[in-house]
Please model this.
Amino acid sequence: MIDSHCHLDFPQFQDDFAGVLSRAEDAGVRRMVTICTRVRRIDTLRAMAEAHREIYFSVGTHPHQAAEETDITVDDLLRHAAHEKCVAIGEAGLDYFYDNAPRDDQERGFRIHIDAARQSGLPLVIHARDADDDIAAILREESGKGPFPFIMHCFSAGRPLAETAIELGGYVSFSGILTFKRSDELRSIAADLPPDRLLVETDAPYLAPQPWRGQTNEPSYVAETNRVLAECHSVDPERMAEMTTQNCLRCFSKMPPLPEAV
Model:
């Protein structure tokens, strides 16, 4: 398996980083993509990826921090994205639930990241919360200017946004939310999506799946989300892990193939 979205630079992992990586390996998680939330902290993510063969990273500004990094340009993103282990742009998008940054700043940042994804060919990791209509409208408008790869990360939105993402060639990634007892509608959406567009993630340290809900999430727990996603598609977990891993390698096209397990 590949944890397509986690935040290994966050302070929750500082005291047991080696243990987090060891437990991930034991759970069959071969790689992790640690996602950038502030471009100004990119040095930490880059160093982490350089020190650990199983870790890759992205570059971008989270919508919560959009007002803090209004000076970040497409060229800035492309310069950092040139690193051999930078495999994605983002996360960027719109968050109308918390509204931690002005919506104009969020949208401006979102469009800058889309441009960087289009120019680099790297997938844009999209954060969408309580902003389905605006996200869909921007994706359609920007796709009309030229295609770009993207991932709807930690998907928990409505069916129309999932269908728009698939229509435009995107991937949909599911987190531990898929395992929650009240996520029947989300599981229904997941079951109806094409298997070749599915990814799994933790969004660690947040959103631990049901057996650990409320605790610090970590990449090893992606196996539980994979298990529930497999149930949605009536396949065994091993087959789902194989599918999502191949999807991840196709989506993160800069990431090299996995070496044969020994």
